[in-house]
Amino acid sequence: MAILRCYEFIQHNTFHIVIERICRQIKGIGDPLVSMYARTYLARKGNEVEPALKNHLHLGYQDFIFHHKVFSAPNFPDKLASYQVTAPEYFNLYSPALDWLLSCIGYNATQNEFNKILESYKETNNSTILRHVINCFDATLISPQADKIIALIEKADGNTPRSKLLISLGSSLVISPPSQEVVMPIFEMVTKLSDQLEDPLESLALSEVFIDYSLQFCTIKEVNIMLESILRRAKEDTASDAVQSALKAIIQKIVNNVSSLVAVFSLDNFSLVLDCVKGSNQVEVCKSILQAFSKTTEVPNDPVVIGTIFTIATTVHDSLNSLSFFDDIRQSSRAIAHFIHKVDYGMDLEKHLNFFVECRKSFANLDYVKQQLVLSTLRLAMRALQIVKGKHTKKTAAFARACISYCFITVPTMEDAMIRLKLYILCGHVALANQSLPQADALFKSAVKLIQEVPPRVTDQQNSLQTKQTEGSLMEIIESLLGLLVAIPGHPEQGPFYLIKGLLKVISDYPFEEHSTAKLRVYVKCLPLLSAQSQVKSPYGFSGVEGNDTLYGTDAAYLTELQQMIDKVVEDILQLVSNLSTAAEEQTKNYPELGKIAIDLFNYLLSFAQLTPKAANLAVKLFNIAKNWPLNNSSTKKYIQNSLDQLSFNPQPLSQELYKKLSS
Questions:
Q1: Using alpha carbons only, what angle is made at residue 131 by residues 127 and 134, rounded to the nearest 5 degrees?
Q2: Are 590 and 632 contacting, i.e. CB atoms less than 8 angstroms apart?
Q3: How many Å apart are CA 39 and CA 17, to the nearest integer?
Q4: In which element (H, E) is residue 459 found?
Q5: Which 8-state DSSP code applies to residue 458?
Q6: Closest CA to 518 of 583, 548, 566, 473
Q7: Cβ atoms 286, 316 nearer than 8 A
Q8: Closest C-alpha among 585, 270, 295, 540 to residue 432
Q9: Which residue in 345, 243, 343, 348 sits closest to 300, CA to CA?
Q10: How far apart are CA 142 and CA 163, in angstroms?
Q11: Which residue stretches of 197-278 are H helix?
Q12: Between vectors from CA 245 to CA 304 and to CA 322, what angle results, nearest 5°?
């Protein structure tokens, strides 16, 4: 057999004849165990030279079944006793050879081939052979014969425990479903056997396979029955590491394969089984449950279900500490945040807010979760506003203020100054929408003060050896704040522009990086805001909130103060442009965006200011800076040309004169 390939030198295409001849010769080997391994070796060598040839495999299997009669001979037990070997131990010696032989037969086998193998097995009733037959053939061939295999399992001898046979069968059935007629008989047989097994580990191994089976083919009632059986056997030896590992595997299989996690959480036995898991296994199980729940679209509204998941989330939170990996903290935080986001108490908004209060106390160490709590609470306040259709009653107004107060208390507990800044602005926005002006003032004032605490650079969370700039993100936040300041009314004691003045003061003192144009960009963006403050009617506002256009209108003192602010901002802008232009002669590469800033200021000047000879001279200066800037890219050049073309449509004589001067 070792030199089987050499027959190619004697005569071509004779491998099938040679292999079948050797297969028949093996029958002459007297020792059944030796002959079985000889057939296995022939199967291996035959697969090398003729992979499609299977006739010798079937012959080898039939010969093995025939030799099985030796095992039932009267003197066979005495012979095994002389070798000090039990019958199960002896049959286990056949397992590797039998597994290989049946695997070769089972590769690309047809249903007819499997039926013949199963029919031949009936001559033995050997459970070891039956287990290999089930393991080595495709699940699609096994499921149509599930009823016959169940009958064979009941008749099989005890060399291989019946539980292992059912585990092998169950592993195939969860891949290829059986007919509906045998689903419940198989389930009843498994639950009955699980209770009869003496070893709880053996029972749990059986349940691990068939819990998946019951999830796929049975109702939630059968799942609860299976969990009851698991609970009963687990309590026999809860402290065992093996039992703990088995329980962990069972619960993870449930949460990963069940169609409705909420339905499983409502089962009384599931919570009891979960309570049996202890230590590190409990933490891993709780993480698996949270991860699985975060991927579903189900909305928990049952207090029992919410309480169960909340306890699970608390367990995960308490397992994290300063030594935990960043990814572990991030994944756990997001899973808990997903749960909080999905919770729904229906119209009982106060109960929902109380739930958020409890969450803030329980998840105090996770900033991402607290961020989600703030966002969910703001959504709750807006939902109350939606329910009353924008017109608060005394009760709903108090509830909205309570939600905003919750956020005002929660935001300062976070470490990331950038996130706190975003949330302060968002909370202020919601406070304005709910006509809570004192709270909005406090929130926006906190946001303006917080800008000073945002560092110019922060450590990259993914790589602690690197830092990244915060300038881009800070600019986006400041621009959104400037847009909101248009609709925010002034303070009766501190004046109509106290927030704008505070913002400009903070920006002036902020330690931007050297050669940064951020301060200039903020001042330029302030011009549309100040222009909007001078309009008779504000471009936008909040329902029920009177803006500066209503409170101050055309008041002379108001307009005078506004003009002074505009003059100061323009003066600061021109000074910054001059400084940057001078510095650019030495370090041009640091200011590629200066051309765009200059043309932005040019457009703001023409759009928001009255065009006077003095303003026209300033416009010419800005346009020349933008046009002649050497680092302009193609989009900036196009922007400059479009700005000039737009000026040509202004019919005012001074505008036309300016256009001719700039286009010449």
A1: 135
A2: no
A3: 16
A4: strand 457-459
A5: E
A6: 473
A7: yes
A8: 540
A9: 343
A10: 17
A11: 200-217, 220-234, 241-257, 261-265, 268-276
A12: 75
592-595: long-range pairs with CB below 8 Å, 24+: 592/631, 592/633, 593/517, 594/517, 594/625, 594/629, 594/631, 595/625, 595/626, 595/627, 595/629, 595/631, 595/632, 595/636, 595/640
Mapping DSSP to helix (H, G, I), strand (E, B) and coil, where does residue 377 land? helix
Q: How confident is the model at residue 348 (pLDDT cuts 50, 70, 90)?
A: very high
Closest CA to 191 of 160, 168, 170: 170
The 3 state secondary structure assigned to 485-514 is: HCCCCCECCCECCHHHHHHHHHHHHCCCCC
> Which residues face 491 on adjacent strands?
495
pLDDT at position 384: 94
Residue 340 CA to residue 520 CA, distance in Å, equals: 41
- 468 SS3 class: strand
How far from 365 is each of 360, 362, 369, CA to CA, in Å? 9, 8, 9
User: Residue 309: how many CB atoms within 10 A of its CB?
Assistant: 23
Q: Which residues pair with 467 in a beta bridge?
A: 459
Please give the structure tokens belonging to residue 457: 């650079």
First to last CA, the chain: 98
| CA–CA gap between residue 360 and residue 344 (Å, rounded) | 17
| Residue pointed to by tokens 């009936």 | 122
Contacts of 92 (CB under 8 A, 6+ apart): 128
pLDDT tens, residue by residue, 261-302 = 888 988 889 999 999 999 889 999 999 999 999 988 888 888
Closest CA to 290 of 316, 257, 264: 316
Name the token pair of 124. Answer: 């033995």
Q: Please name the amino acid found at residue 362.
A: S
Q: Output 290-296 pairs: Cβ under 8 A, ≥24 positions apart.
A: 290/316, 290/332, 290/335, 290/336, 290/338, 290/339, 291/331, 291/335, 292/255, 292/256, 292/261, 293/255, 293/261, 293/335, 293/338, 293/339, 293/342, 294/334, 294/335, 294/338, 294/339, 296/261
Residue 409: closest CA among 360, 452, 478, 351: 360
Phi, psi dihedral angles at 491 (to 5 degrees):
-100, 135
The pLDDT tens digits of the residues spanning 30-50 come to 888 898 999 898 888 888 888
Query: How far is residue 143's CA from residue 175's CA, in Å, rounded to a whole number?
Result: 9
172-210, pLDDT tens digit by residue?
A: 999 999 988 889 989 998 988 888 888 889 999 999 999
What token pair was written down for 69? 């009669």
The angle that helices 162-173 and 127-136 make with each other, rounded to 10 degrees, is 20
Those residues whose C-beta lies under 8 Å from the C-beta of residue 546, and which sit 6 or more positions away, are: 489
Say if strands 457-459 and 467-469 run parallel, antiparallel, or are unpaired: antiparallel
Q: Which residue has the tokens 């909340």?
A: 310
Average pLDDT over the chain, rounded to whole? 87
Calculate the CA dihedral of residues 129, 32, 116, 133 and round it to 10 degrees: 20
Tokens of 369: 């979760």
Q: 89: part of which helix (H) or strand (E)?
A: helix 87-92
588 pLDDT above the threshold of 70: no
Distance, C-alpha 388 to centroid of its chain: 35
C-alpha–C-alpha distance, residues 231 and 238, integer Å? 10
Phi and psi torsions of 66, nearest 5°: -65, -45
Q: Which of 436 and 616 is assigned the larger pLDDT? A: 436
Query: Measuring CA to CA, how many Å separate 118 from each of 54, 59, 99, 149, 163?
Result: 17, 15, 15, 8, 19
Q: What is the pTM of this model?
A: 0.81
Q: Are 507 and 451 in contact (CB under 8 A)?
A: yes
